[in-house]
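Researcher: Here's a chain I'd like modeled. Treat it as a single chain, no partners, no ligands.
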Amino acid sequence: MKLRMENNVKLAPTRAAIALLAISGLALAGCASGSRGGDTAAKDDANASAGLLQTTPAATGLAEKVTWNSTYGELASLDPVKAFNYPENTIVANLCESLFQMQPDFSVQPNLATGADTTDGTDWKLGIRDDVTFWDGSPMTVEDVMFSLNRHIDPAEGSYWGGGVVANIKSIEKTGDSEVTISLNTPDYTFPSSLSTIIGVVAQEEQREAAGENYGNPDTGVMCTGPLQFTPGNWKQGQSITLDRFDGYWNEDRQAKSKQVEIGFVVDPTAIANGLSTGEIQGSYDVPLPALGQLGSSSTGTLFAGQGMQDMAIISTGEGLFGDPAVRRALTRATDRQAIADTVYEGTGTVSRSVVPQSAWDAIDGVAELRDEKLPDLSFDIEAAKQELEAADVDLSKPIKIAYPSERSFYADILNEMANGAKELGITLEPTGVPSAQFGAFFSDPEARKGFDGFVTTNYLSAPDPLLHLISVAKTGSDQNYANFSDPKVDAALDAAIGESDAQKRAELTVEAEALIMAAQPWVPVNDLAVRMYMDNAITGAPASFVYLYYPWAADLGAAE
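Model: Modeled as a single isolated chain. C-alpha coordinates:
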Protein backbone atom coordinates (compact mmCIF):
# COMPACT_ATOMS: atom_id res chain seq x y z
CA MET A 1 0.00 0.00 0.00
CA LYS A 2 1.34 3.44 -0.96
CA LEU A 3 0.03 6.96 -0.52
CA ARG A 4 0.98 9.63 -3.03
CA MET A 5 1.57 13.26 -2.22
CA GLU A 6 -0.98 15.11 -4.30
CA ASN A 7 -3.51 17.82 -3.57
CA ASN A 8 -6.72 17.19 -5.47
CA VAL A 9 -8.77 19.89 -3.76
CA LYS A 10 -10.41 22.21 -6.28
CA LEU A 11 -11.13 25.81 -5.36
CA ALA A 12 -14.12 27.77 -6.58
CA PRO A 13 -13.21 30.57 -8.98
CA THR A 14 -14.62 33.57 -7.13
CA ARG A 15 -15.67 34.67 -3.67
CA ALA A 16 -19.11 35.61 -5.00
CA ALA A 17 -19.64 32.08 -6.33
CA ILE A 18 -18.55 30.52 -3.06
CA ALA A 19 -20.85 32.80 -1.08
CA LEU A 20 -23.80 31.68 -3.19
CA LEU A 21 -22.82 28.05 -2.67
CA ALA A 22 -22.53 28.66 1.06
CA ILE A 23 -26.08 29.95 1.12
CA SER A 24 -27.35 27.06 -0.99
CA GLY A 25 -25.50 24.62 1.26
CA LEU A 26 -27.40 25.95 4.25
CA ALA A 27 -30.63 25.60 2.33
CA LEU A 28 -29.84 22.02 1.30
CA ALA A 29 -29.04 21.10 4.87
CA GLY A 30 -32.36 22.47 6.04
CA CYS A 31 -34.46 20.76 3.37
CA ALA A 32 -33.11 17.23 3.67
CA SER A 33 -35.75 14.55 4.04
CA GLY A 34 -36.46 13.06 7.43
CA SER A 35 -36.59 9.54 5.98
CA ARG A 36 -33.34 7.65 6.33
CA GLY A 37 -31.93 4.33 5.27
CA GLY A 38 -33.27 1.78 2.83
CA ASP A 39 -35.03 4.28 0.55
CA THR A 40 -34.40 7.01 -2.00
CA ALA A 41 -34.47 9.73 0.65
CA ALA A 42 -31.12 8.49 1.86
CA LYS A 43 -29.63 9.32 -1.53
CA ASP A 44 -31.21 12.78 -1.39
CA ASP A 45 -29.55 13.46 1.95
CA ALA A 46 -26.19 12.28 0.64
CA ASN A 47 -26.56 14.79 -2.17
CA ALA A 48 -27.31 17.50 0.40
CA SER A 49 -24.12 16.67 2.23
CA ALA A 50 -22.15 16.79 -1.00
CA GLY A 51 -23.50 20.32 -1.63
CA LEU A 52 -21.68 21.64 1.41
CA LEU A 53 -18.30 23.31 0.96
CA GLN A 54 -14.79 21.96 1.38
CA THR A 55 -12.79 25.10 0.66
CA THR A 56 -13.06 28.84 0.15
CA PRO A 57 -11.30 30.86 -2.58
CA ALA A 58 -7.54 31.00 -2.16
CA ALA A 59 -5.95 34.14 -0.74
CA THR A 60 -4.78 36.58 -3.38
CA GLY A 61 -2.31 38.46 -1.20
CA LEU A 62 -0.36 38.34 2.04
CA ALA A 63 -2.32 39.66 5.02
CA GLU A 64 -0.48 41.59 7.72
CA LYS A 65 -2.64 40.23 10.55
CA VAL A 66 -5.81 38.18 10.84
CA THR A 67 -7.93 38.10 14.01
CA TRP A 68 -9.78 34.82 14.60
CA ASN A 69 -11.70 33.38 17.51
CA SER A 70 -11.73 30.05 19.35
CA THR A 71 -15.43 29.61 20.17
CA TYR A 72 -14.75 26.89 22.75
CA GLY A 73 -12.41 29.16 24.67
CA GLU A 74 -8.81 29.04 25.78
CA LEU A 75 -6.53 26.09 25.29
CA ALA A 76 -4.99 24.34 28.31
CA SER A 77 -1.63 23.47 26.72
CA LEU A 78 0.36 23.53 23.49
CA ASP A 79 1.71 20.04 24.20
CA PRO A 80 0.56 17.92 21.23
CA VAL A 81 -0.06 14.78 23.29
CA LYS A 82 -2.49 16.80 25.43
CA ALA A 83 -4.38 18.09 22.37
CA PHE A 84 -7.65 16.16 22.53
CA ASN A 85 -10.27 18.90 22.36
CA TYR A 86 -11.34 21.82 20.20
CA PRO A 87 -9.33 24.66 21.84
CA GLU A 88 -6.04 22.73 21.81
CA ASN A 89 -6.33 20.98 18.45
CA THR A 90 -7.51 24.08 16.57
CA ILE A 91 -4.27 25.87 17.51
CA VAL A 92 -1.74 23.01 17.65
CA ALA A 93 -2.76 21.96 14.10
CA ASN A 94 -1.12 25.13 12.78
CA LEU A 95 2.11 24.67 14.73
CA CYS A 96 2.95 20.99 14.91
CA GLU A 97 2.74 18.87 11.78
CA SER A 98 1.87 15.22 11.40
CA LEU A 99 3.52 12.52 9.30
CA PHE A 100 0.40 12.37 7.12
CA GLN A 101 -2.04 15.19 6.63
CA MET A 102 -5.80 15.26 6.30
CA GLN A 103 -6.95 17.47 3.42
CA PRO A 104 -10.12 19.59 3.11
CA ASP A 105 -11.67 16.88 0.91
CA PHE A 106 -10.97 14.34 3.73
CA SER A 107 -8.28 12.55 1.76
CA VAL A 108 -5.03 11.70 3.58
CA GLN A 109 -1.66 12.53 2.02
CA PRO A 110 1.99 12.16 3.06
CA ASN A 111 3.38 15.20 4.80
CA LEU A 112 6.46 14.87 7.03
CA ALA A 113 6.51 11.28 5.80
CA THR A 114 7.13 10.65 2.10
CA GLY A 115 4.88 7.60 2.06
CA ALA A 116 3.97 4.34 3.78
CA ASP A 117 4.47 0.75 2.62
CA THR A 118 3.17 -2.50 4.05
CA THR A 119 2.79 -6.04 2.79
CA ASP A 120 0.72 -7.40 5.66
CA GLY A 121 -0.92 -4.42 7.40
CA THR A 122 1.24 -5.12 10.46
CA ASP A 123 4.71 -3.79 9.59
CA TRP A 124 4.65 -0.27 8.16
CA LYS A 125 7.76 1.33 6.62
CA LEU A 126 7.58 5.10 6.61
CA GLY A 127 9.94 7.27 4.58
CA ILE A 128 10.81 10.48 6.47
CA ARG A 129 11.55 13.78 4.74
CA ASP A 130 15.14 15.02 5.08
CA ASP A 131 14.50 18.65 4.11
CA VAL A 132 12.41 19.78 7.08
CA THR A 133 13.61 22.12 9.81
CA PHE A 134 12.18 23.19 13.14
CA TRP A 135 11.52 26.87 13.77
CA ASP A 136 14.98 27.26 15.31
CA GLY A 137 16.58 26.12 12.03
CA SER A 138 17.71 22.69 13.25
CA PRO A 139 16.82 19.69 11.06
CA MET A 140 13.96 17.36 11.90
CA THR A 141 15.46 13.89 12.33
CA VAL A 142 14.25 10.32 12.38
CA GLU A 143 15.05 10.38 16.09
CA ASP A 144 12.60 13.26 16.58
CA VAL A 145 9.95 11.24 14.76
CA MET A 146 10.52 8.16 16.91
CA PHE A 147 10.60 10.23 20.10
CA SER A 148 7.31 11.92 19.24
CA LEU A 149 5.56 8.63 18.45
CA ASN A 150 6.88 7.03 21.61
CA ARG A 151 5.52 9.86 23.74
CA HIS A 152 2.05 8.40 23.23
CA ILE A 153 3.24 5.04 24.50
CA ASP A 154 5.23 6.31 27.50
CA PRO A 155 2.90 6.44 30.55
CA ALA A 156 5.03 9.19 32.07
CA GLU A 157 4.01 11.53 29.22
CA GLY A 158 0.30 11.09 29.98
CA SER A 159 -0.83 11.19 26.35
CA TYR A 160 -4.54 11.60 25.85
CA TRP A 161 -4.15 9.39 22.75
CA GLY A 162 -2.74 6.35 24.53
CA GLY A 163 -5.57 3.91 23.76
CA GLY A 164 -7.00 2.51 20.54
CA VAL A 165 -4.53 2.79 17.66
CA VAL A 166 -1.59 3.56 19.95
CA ALA A 167 -2.28 0.49 22.08
CA ASN A 168 -1.88 -1.61 18.92
CA ILE A 169 1.72 -0.42 18.36
CA LYS A 170 4.25 -3.13 19.21
CA SER A 171 7.49 -1.40 18.30
CA ILE A 172 9.00 1.64 16.55
CA GLU A 173 12.44 1.21 15.00
CA LYS A 174 14.84 3.18 12.82
CA THR A 175 15.42 1.04 9.75
CA GLY A 176 17.28 3.54 7.56
CA ASP A 177 18.74 7.05 7.53
CA SER A 178 15.32 8.35 6.52
CA GLU A 179 13.09 5.43 7.42
CA VAL A 180 11.07 4.30 10.43
CA THR A 181 9.32 0.94 10.74
CA ILE A 182 6.26 0.73 12.97
CA SER A 183 5.13 -2.79 13.86
CA LEU A 184 1.59 -3.42 15.06
CA ASN A 185 0.18 -6.25 17.12
CA THR A 186 -2.67 -6.85 14.67
CA PRO A 187 -3.12 -5.75 11.03
CA ASP A 188 -4.49 -2.25 10.43
CA TYR A 189 -4.69 -1.11 6.82
CA THR A 190 -6.04 2.29 7.92
CA PHE A 191 -2.90 3.12 9.92
CA PRO A 192 -1.68 6.09 7.79
CA SER A 193 -5.05 7.73 8.37
CA SER A 194 -4.40 7.63 12.13
CA LEU A 195 -1.01 9.24 11.54
CA SER A 196 -2.82 12.31 10.17
CA THR A 197 -4.05 13.02 13.70
CA ILE A 198 -2.08 14.06 16.78
CA ILE A 199 -0.71 10.50 16.92
CA GLY A 200 1.52 11.36 13.94
CA VAL A 201 2.63 14.83 15.09
CA VAL A 202 6.39 15.46 15.31
CA ALA A 203 7.93 17.79 17.90
CA GLN A 204 11.58 18.43 18.69
CA GLU A 205 13.02 16.01 21.25
CA GLU A 206 15.68 18.41 22.57
CA GLN A 207 13.24 21.19 23.44
CA ARG A 208 10.76 18.76 25.02
CA GLU A 209 13.45 17.36 27.30
CA ALA A 210 14.78 20.80 28.24
CA ALA A 211 11.32 22.17 29.08
CA GLY A 212 10.46 19.41 31.52
CA GLU A 213 7.22 20.03 33.43
CA ASN A 214 6.85 23.45 31.79
CA TYR A 215 6.49 21.97 28.30
CA GLY A 216 3.59 23.44 26.34
CA ASN A 217 2.87 26.31 28.71
CA PRO A 218 2.84 30.03 27.69
CA ASP A 219 6.43 30.62 28.83
CA THR A 220 7.97 27.59 27.11
CA GLY A 221 5.68 26.54 24.29
CA VAL A 222 6.77 23.87 21.80
CA MET A 223 9.28 23.51 18.98
CA CYS A 224 7.70 22.17 15.79
CA THR A 225 7.89 22.42 11.99
CA GLY A 226 4.56 23.97 10.99
CA PRO A 227 3.88 26.97 8.73
CA LEU A 228 3.05 29.10 11.77
CA GLN A 229 5.23 29.32 14.87
CA PHE A 230 4.76 30.18 18.51
CA THR A 231 7.06 32.52 20.39
CA PRO A 232 7.00 32.35 24.21
CA GLY A 233 5.21 35.42 25.48
CA ASN A 234 2.68 35.50 22.62
CA TRP A 235 0.06 33.64 24.64
CA LYS A 236 -1.81 36.18 26.74
CA GLN A 237 -3.74 33.97 29.14
CA GLY A 238 -7.44 34.72 29.26
CA GLN A 239 -7.24 36.81 26.07
CA SER A 240 -5.54 35.40 22.98
CA ILE A 241 -2.60 33.58 21.41
CA THR A 242 -0.65 34.99 18.43
CA LEU A 243 0.99 32.80 15.80
CA ASP A 244 3.66 34.15 13.44
CA ARG A 245 4.47 33.07 9.89
CA PHE A 246 7.50 30.72 9.74
CA ASP A 247 9.46 32.03 6.77
CA GLY A 248 11.71 28.96 6.72
CA TYR A 249 8.82 26.52 6.24
CA TRP A 250 9.90 23.52 4.15
CA ASN A 251 6.89 23.47 1.80
CA GLU A 252 7.17 26.69 -0.22
CA ASP A 253 3.84 26.06 -1.93
CA ARG A 254 2.03 25.99 1.41
CA GLN A 255 3.65 28.88 3.28
CA ALA A 256 1.38 30.93 5.52
CA LYS A 257 -0.59 33.65 3.74
CA SER A 258 -0.65 35.92 6.82
CA LYS A 259 2.24 37.39 8.75
CA GLN A 260 0.31 36.98 12.00
CA VAL A 261 -2.84 35.21 13.16
CA GLU A 262 -4.23 36.22 16.53
CA ILE A 263 -6.75 33.76 17.98
CA GLY A 264 -8.99 35.05 20.76
CA PHE A 265 -10.85 33.10 23.43
CA VAL A 266 -14.32 34.71 23.38
CA VAL A 267 -17.06 32.22 24.34
CA ASP A 268 -20.16 34.40 24.83
CA PRO A 269 -22.41 33.96 21.74
CA THR A 270 -23.55 37.59 21.73
CA ALA A 271 -20.01 38.92 22.00
CA ILE A 272 -18.89 36.56 19.20
CA ALA A 273 -21.74 37.65 16.92
CA ASN A 274 -21.10 41.35 17.56
CA GLY A 275 -17.33 40.97 17.14
CA LEU A 276 -17.72 39.16 13.82
CA SER A 277 -20.37 41.50 12.42
CA THR A 278 -18.30 44.62 13.24
CA GLY A 279 -15.01 43.15 11.97
CA GLU A 280 -13.31 43.27 15.36
CA ILE A 281 -13.07 39.50 14.93
CA GLN A 282 -12.47 38.52 11.30
CA GLY A 283 -13.36 34.86 11.45
CA SER A 284 -14.42 31.85 13.47
CA TYR A 285 -15.24 28.17 13.21
CA ASP A 286 -18.08 26.74 15.30
CA VAL A 287 -20.18 29.88 15.07
CA PRO A 288 -22.65 29.67 17.99
CA LEU A 289 -26.19 28.72 17.02
CA PRO A 290 -27.71 31.92 18.52
CA ALA A 291 -25.44 33.97 16.22
CA LEU A 292 -26.54 32.39 12.94
CA GLY A 293 -29.44 34.76 12.30
CA GLN A 294 -27.39 37.90 12.82
CA LEU A 295 -24.38 36.70 10.83
CA GLY A 296 -26.40 35.14 8.03
CA SER A 297 -27.57 38.60 6.99
CA SER A 298 -24.29 40.40 7.65
CA SER A 299 -22.88 42.64 4.92
CA THR A 300 -19.35 42.58 6.35
CA GLY A 301 -18.67 38.90 5.77
CA THR A 302 -20.00 35.49 4.79
CA LEU A 303 -21.40 32.62 6.83
CA PHE A 304 -20.20 29.37 5.24
CA ALA A 305 -21.66 25.87 5.61
CA GLY A 306 -18.97 23.22 5.19
CA GLN A 307 -18.80 19.46 5.01
CA GLY A 308 -18.61 18.15 8.55
CA MET A 309 -17.45 15.11 10.44
CA GLN A 310 -19.49 15.97 13.53
CA ASP A 311 -22.70 14.47 14.76
CA MET A 312 -25.01 14.98 17.70
CA ALA A 313 -26.03 11.73 19.40
CA ILE A 314 -27.28 10.24 22.66
CA ILE A 315 -24.86 7.74 24.18
CA SER A 316 -26.24 4.83 26.18
CA THR A 317 -24.60 4.04 29.50
CA GLY A 318 -25.96 0.50 29.24
CA GLU A 319 -28.31 1.09 32.18
CA GLY A 320 -32.10 1.26 32.55
CA LEU A 321 -34.58 1.34 29.69
CA PHE A 322 -32.07 3.01 27.40
CA GLY A 323 -29.78 0.03 27.86
CA ASP A 324 -32.21 -2.06 25.77
CA PRO A 325 -31.50 -1.87 22.00
CA ALA A 326 -35.21 -2.16 21.21
CA VAL A 327 -35.93 0.96 23.28
CA ARG A 328 -33.14 2.86 21.56
CA ARG A 329 -34.40 1.85 18.11
CA ALA A 330 -37.94 2.86 19.06
CA LEU A 331 -36.86 6.27 20.35
CA THR A 332 -34.86 6.97 17.20
CA ARG A 333 -37.91 6.36 15.03
CA ALA A 334 -40.27 8.23 17.39
CA THR A 335 -38.14 11.40 17.43
CA ASP A 336 -38.76 14.06 14.81
CA ARG A 337 -35.07 14.57 14.06
CA GLN A 338 -35.89 16.74 11.03
CA ALA A 339 -37.59 19.22 13.38
CA ILE A 340 -34.37 19.29 15.42
CA ALA A 341 -32.34 19.99 12.27
CA ASP A 342 -34.70 22.78 11.23
CA THR A 343 -35.25 24.51 14.57
CA VAL A 344 -32.33 23.77 16.88
CA TYR A 345 -29.60 23.74 14.22
CA GLU A 346 -31.38 26.28 11.98
CA GLY A 347 -30.74 24.32 8.80
CA THR A 348 -27.09 23.48 9.52
CA GLY A 349 -27.94 19.90 10.48
CA THR A 350 -29.28 16.90 8.59
CA VAL A 351 -31.01 13.82 9.94
CA SER A 352 -28.43 11.15 10.76
CA ARG A 353 -28.66 7.73 9.20
CA SER A 354 -25.72 6.36 11.20
CA VAL A 355 -23.27 7.15 13.97
CA VAL A 356 -20.87 7.98 11.10
CA PRO A 357 -21.59 11.43 9.63
CA GLN A 358 -22.59 11.33 5.98
CA SER A 359 -19.72 13.51 4.72
CA ALA A 360 -17.16 10.90 5.76
CA TRP A 361 -18.93 8.36 3.53
CA ASP A 362 -19.37 10.85 0.68
CA ALA A 363 -15.58 10.87 0.29
CA ILE A 364 -15.59 7.10 -0.43
CA ASP A 365 -16.74 5.85 -3.83
CA GLY A 366 -18.68 2.71 -4.55
CA VAL A 367 -20.63 2.09 -1.34
CA ALA A 368 -23.69 4.36 -1.52
CA GLU A 369 -26.03 1.71 -2.93
CA LEU A 370 -24.75 -0.92 -0.51
CA ARG A 371 -25.43 1.39 2.44
CA ASP A 372 -28.93 2.07 1.11
CA GLU A 373 -29.48 -1.68 0.98
CA LYS A 374 -27.91 -2.67 4.31
CA LEU A 375 -28.55 0.13 6.80
CA PRO A 376 -31.78 -0.04 8.80
CA ASP A 377 -34.59 2.42 8.17
CA LEU A 378 -34.42 5.14 10.85
CA SER A 379 -37.11 7.41 9.41
CA PHE A 380 -39.60 9.21 11.64
CA ASP A 381 -42.50 6.76 11.99
CA ILE A 382 -44.45 6.41 15.26
CA GLU A 383 -46.17 3.16 14.25
CA ALA A 384 -42.83 1.59 13.29
CA ALA A 385 -41.42 2.83 16.61
CA LYS A 386 -44.21 1.11 18.52
CA GLN A 387 -43.43 -2.14 16.70
CA GLU A 388 -39.76 -1.80 17.66
CA LEU A 389 -40.73 -1.28 21.28
CA GLU A 390 -42.62 -4.60 21.36
CA ALA A 391 -39.22 -6.36 21.41
CA ALA A 392 -38.13 -4.55 24.59
CA ASP A 393 -37.33 -6.70 27.62
CA VAL A 394 -37.34 -4.03 30.35
CA ASP A 395 -39.81 -2.37 32.71
CA LEU A 396 -41.29 0.39 30.54
CA SER A 397 -42.82 2.19 33.53
CA LYS A 398 -39.43 3.52 34.65
CA PRO A 399 -38.19 6.87 33.31
CA ILE A 400 -35.20 7.29 30.99
CA LYS A 401 -32.79 9.80 32.51
CA ILE A 402 -30.58 11.56 29.93
CA ALA A 403 -27.88 14.02 31.04
CA TYR A 404 -26.80 17.17 29.24
CA PRO A 405 -24.56 20.14 30.17
CA SER A 406 -27.01 22.60 31.71
CA GLU A 407 -25.23 25.67 30.31
CA ARG A 408 -26.02 24.55 26.73
CA SER A 409 -29.76 24.99 26.52
CA PHE A 410 -30.07 23.74 22.94
CA TYR A 411 -29.46 20.22 24.25
CA ALA A 412 -32.59 20.59 26.39
CA ASP A 413 -34.53 21.51 23.26
CA ILE A 414 -33.26 18.37 21.52
CA LEU A 415 -34.08 16.12 24.46
CA ASN A 416 -37.53 17.69 24.85
CA GLU A 417 -38.26 16.73 21.24
CA MET A 418 -37.12 13.20 22.03
CA ALA A 419 -39.29 13.24 25.17
CA ASN A 420 -42.29 14.08 22.97
CA GLY A 421 -41.57 11.00 20.90
CA ALA A 422 -41.19 8.88 24.02
CA LYS A 423 -44.58 10.10 25.25
CA GLU A 424 -46.15 8.86 22.01
CA LEU A 425 -44.75 5.42 22.88
CA GLY A 426 -46.09 5.53 26.44
CA ILE A 427 -42.67 5.90 28.06
CA THR A 428 -41.04 8.79 29.90
CA LEU A 429 -37.77 10.51 29.04
CA GLU A 430 -36.36 12.99 31.57
CA PRO A 431 -33.75 15.51 30.34
CA THR A 432 -31.45 16.27 33.27
CA GLY A 433 -29.12 19.25 33.28
CA VAL A 434 -25.69 18.77 34.82
CA PRO A 435 -23.09 21.55 35.32
CA SER A 436 -20.47 21.44 32.57
CA ALA A 437 -17.63 20.91 35.02
CA GLN A 438 -19.38 17.76 36.23
CA PHE A 439 -20.64 16.68 32.82
CA GLY A 440 -17.15 16.46 31.36
CA ALA A 441 -16.41 13.53 33.66
CA PHE A 442 -19.09 11.46 31.91
CA PHE A 443 -16.57 10.73 29.16
CA SER A 444 -13.86 9.44 31.49
CA ASP A 445 -15.36 8.31 34.80
CA PRO A 446 -17.94 5.50 35.05
CA GLU A 447 -18.86 6.75 38.51
CA ALA A 448 -19.97 10.09 37.05
CA ARG A 449 -22.40 8.27 34.75
CA LYS A 450 -24.07 6.30 37.54
CA GLY A 451 -27.78 6.98 37.83
CA PHE A 452 -28.10 8.05 34.19
CA ASP A 453 -29.36 5.98 31.25
CA GLY A 454 -27.60 8.12 28.67
CA PHE A 455 -25.89 11.43 27.94
CA VAL A 456 -25.58 13.77 24.98
CA THR A 457 -22.54 14.28 22.80
CA THR A 458 -21.48 16.45 19.91
CA ASN A 459 -18.87 14.08 18.63
CA TYR A 460 -16.55 13.91 15.65
CA LEU A 461 -14.36 11.53 13.70
CA SER A 462 -10.73 11.80 14.79
CA ALA A 463 -9.58 10.47 11.42
CA PRO A 464 -11.50 10.59 8.11
CA ASP A 465 -12.26 6.88 8.03
CA PRO A 466 -15.72 5.57 9.01
CA LEU A 467 -14.20 2.28 10.14
CA LEU A 468 -12.07 3.85 12.85
CA HIS A 469 -15.06 5.67 14.32
CA LEU A 470 -17.18 2.51 14.29
CA ILE A 471 -14.42 0.67 16.15
CA SER A 472 -14.20 3.48 18.70
CA VAL A 473 -17.96 3.42 19.32
CA ALA A 474 -18.88 -0.26 19.19
CA LYS A 475 -15.99 -2.68 19.48
CA THR A 476 -15.71 -4.54 22.77
CA GLY A 477 -13.60 -2.48 25.17
CA SER A 478 -13.05 0.47 22.81
CA ASP A 479 -12.48 4.00 24.05
CA GLN A 480 -15.94 5.42 23.31
CA ASN A 481 -17.93 2.28 24.09
CA TYR A 482 -19.46 3.74 27.25
CA ALA A 483 -22.25 1.15 27.44
CA ASN A 484 -19.84 -1.81 27.51
CA PHE A 485 -21.60 -2.93 24.35
CA SER A 486 -20.26 -6.26 23.15
CA ASP A 487 -21.36 -8.34 20.18
CA PRO A 488 -19.10 -11.08 18.74
CA LYS A 489 -20.59 -10.54 15.26
CA VAL A 490 -19.79 -6.82 15.39
CA ASP A 491 -16.24 -7.48 16.64
CA ALA A 492 -15.64 -10.02 13.90
CA ALA A 493 -16.99 -7.66 11.21
CA LEU A 494 -14.79 -4.80 12.41
CA ASP A 495 -11.71 -7.04 12.59
CA ALA A 496 -12.37 -8.33 9.06
CA ALA A 497 -12.63 -4.77 7.73
CA ILE A 498 -9.49 -3.36 9.32
CA GLY A 499 -7.49 -6.42 8.25
CA GLU A 500 -8.55 -6.12 4.58
CA SER A 501 -5.86 -4.78 2.24
CA ASP A 502 -8.14 -3.93 -0.71
CA ALA A 503 -9.65 -0.48 -0.14
CA GLN A 504 -12.92 -1.20 -1.96
CA LYS A 505 -13.47 -4.50 -0.19
CA ARG A 506 -12.57 -2.86 3.13
CA ALA A 507 -15.21 -0.19 2.55
CA GLU A 508 -17.81 -2.86 1.80
CA LEU A 509 -16.89 -4.79 4.94
CA THR A 510 -17.14 -1.54 6.90
CA VAL A 511 -20.72 -1.10 5.66
CA GLU A 512 -21.51 -4.63 6.83
CA ALA A 513 -20.19 -3.76 10.29
CA GLU A 514 -22.00 -0.41 10.27
CA ALA A 515 -25.32 -2.14 9.54
CA LEU A 516 -24.88 -4.48 12.53
CA ILE A 517 -24.00 -1.56 14.79
CA MET A 518 -26.95 0.54 13.67
CA ALA A 519 -29.29 -2.37 14.38
CA ALA A 520 -28.18 -2.13 18.02
CA GLN A 521 -27.49 1.63 18.24
CA PRO A 522 -25.21 1.88 21.29
CA TRP A 523 -25.38 5.55 20.30
CA VAL A 524 -28.68 6.99 19.08
CA PRO A 525 -27.77 9.30 16.16
CA VAL A 526 -29.73 12.53 15.91
CA ASN A 527 -28.19 15.02 13.46
CA ASP A 528 -25.09 15.29 11.27
CA LEU A 529 -23.70 18.80 11.62
CA ALA A 530 -22.34 21.11 8.94
CA VAL A 531 -19.31 23.25 9.74
CA ARG A 532 -20.45 26.78 10.61
CA MET A 533 -17.68 29.21 9.64
CA TYR A 534 -17.71 32.98 9.24
CA MET A 535 -15.10 35.09 7.44
CA ASP A 536 -14.86 38.85 7.03
CA ASN A 537 -14.86 40.15 3.46
CA ALA A 538 -11.23 41.26 3.84
CA ILE A 539 -9.90 37.71 4.21
CA THR A 540 -10.31 34.35 2.51
CA GLY A 541 -8.71 30.93 2.14
CA ALA A 542 -9.68 29.01 5.26
CA PRO A 543 -10.95 25.47 4.57
CA ALA A 544 -14.69 25.19 5.12
CA SER A 545 -14.75 21.47 5.92
CA PHE A 546 -14.11 19.83 9.26
CA VAL A 547 -10.33 19.54 9.04
CA TYR A 548 -9.36 22.41 11.32
CA LEU A 549 -8.47 20.12 14.23
CA TYR A 550 -5.61 18.48 12.27
CA TYR A 551 -4.90 20.63 9.20
CA PRO A 552 -3.04 24.00 9.31
CA TRP A 553 -6.12 26.01 8.42
CA ALA A 554 -4.73 29.37 9.59
CA ALA A 555 -1.83 29.10 7.11
CA ASP A 556 -4.36 29.29 4.25
CA LEU A 557 -5.84 32.57 5.54
CA GLY A 558 -4.83 35.66 3.63
CA ALA A 559 -6.00 38.82 1.95
CA ALA A 560 -9.08 38.60 -0.30
CA GLU A 561 -7.74 41.25 -2.67
